[in-house]
Amino acid sequence: MTPTPAPASAALFDRARAVTPGGVNSPVRAFNAVGGTPRFIRSAQGAWLTDVDGNEYVDLICSWGPMLLGHAHPEVMAAVSAAVARGTSYGTPTEPEVELAEEIVGRTPVEAVRFVSSGTEATMSAIRLARGFTGRDVIVKFAGCYHGHVDSLLASAGSGVATHQEFAVPGSPGVPASSTELTLVLPYNDRAAVKAAFAEHGPRIAALITEAVPGNMGVVPPEPGFNEFLALSCREAGALFISDEVMTGFRATSQGGWGLDGVEEGWTPDLMTFGKVMGGGFPAAAFGGRRDVMSRLSPEGPVYQAGTLSGNPIATTAGLATLRLATDEVYDHIGSAGTTIRGAAAEALAAAGVPHVVQAAGTMFSVFFTGSPVRDFADAATQDTAAYAAFFHAMLDAGVYLPPSAYEAWFLSSAHDDRAVQTVLDALPGAARAAAASPEGR
Ligand SMILES: Cc1ncc(COP(=O)(O)O)c(C=O)c1O
């Protein structure tokens, strides 16, 4: 496979690196995990991206989740254009905010919702609210779950994680130890670790936060009953259960990750966080939950939270248009296209002799380059990242833009039609052979 020439992207990357750290505005875009030149995208339509060199790619990133309907969906574009023509931000309440809040309350167990501009802001605010509501300070999270770059959540398990009882250490320079010393980091899917943490610290725990289905270490489904167990553990301890649905919300199913287990098992999170799909490709996110908890939020209650662009009329219009178009047919289509692609990926990798595991939850899935099932971050970390890098570049050269990291979900949209899916299927066998030929591919 000959590498696709990308001189214009390379030139832009050089210019970008001169004026922006690493040349990008969010680290994973820089291709550090796979090497090479990130493609600078000029335009996108449906399932396809076009880069500044004119190369076309089937998009399996979908803006890291938001583009459920594909790019430049005509009805979303029409709604957004009409909204832009009315002005872009007023700093006053608006009708689309109310309508989007009603849509979210209608689809999920939350009773009230507050809009913010990013998933990071949503989880940060949910944690402040949980602490304000409970009057407690400790937060429990899981290794491998990403909740945005909130100081207290950019935390790694301390060296005593084997005993499950040590508070976290900063996960990045610039995060003070004082920000993570109230965070407990536990292994995912590990009930014993959760029990031990609650047994020792229960009365101090304000909240446990988890991704409804972890997607930020690749897709790692909760073992049956795990989310229900977390909800019950929190309730027994008087702590709040925060389900982070920034990635899964309105994507894994029409009711997000909660639609996979909560509906059936009959539990509800105390707080939920949303982002990505609900903004329709614009910066919008939200947190919401029980009315008695949400009413502690300013101006109804004393817990302060605010935002100049929160509930922005363009972003909420785009989100509302997207959610209104997100019908059962959309989820069925994404689900069946995903089943086809993940089946073909497994077949191609097996034929090439590359160890792999495909894991899915609802319409979300990812391909792990490791030989055994992944139930937590330690398992995900056994991946052969060199094999993934070779696979990624062969796919890119065949016109498929995968996430440039082995630790990510592959995202599809309702615009991934037969031609787009076939392009992916045609690319897989060669990419699997490239993975097999990489230094550690076997
Ligand atoms: C589960 C989850 N929570 C929070 C965030 C942070 O969202 P944002 O990047 O909008 O700050 C992300 C981002 O990928 C996410 O996947």
In short:
This protein has 442 residues and is an alpha/beta fold.
Offer a few descriptive terms.
442 residues; alpha/beta; Aspartate Aminotransferase, domain 1; Aspartate Aminotransferase, domain 2; 2 domains; 7-stranded mixed β-sheet; 4-stranded mixed β-sheet; 14 helices; 15 strands; 38% helix; globular; binds pyridoxal-5'-phosphate
Describe this structure in words.
Helices cover 38% and strands 15% of the residues. The chain is of the alpha/beta class and 442 residues long. The chain folds into 2 domains: 7-68 and 327-437, Aspartate Aminotransferase, domain 1, CATH 3.90.1150; 74-325, Type I PLP-dependent aspartate aminotransferase-like (Major domain) (Aspartate Aminotransferase, domain 2, 3-Layer(aba) Sandwich). Helix 7 (226-237) links the parallel strand 9 and strand 10 (240-245). Helix 6 (191-201) packs parallel to helix 7 and helix 13 packs across helix 14. The protein starts with 6 loop residues before the first helix and ends in a 5-residue tail after the last helix. The mean pLDDT is 96. The structure holds pyridoxal-5'-phosphate. Pyridoxal-5'-phosphate binds at residues 64, 118-120, 123, 146-148, 211, 216, 244, 246-247, 275, 285.
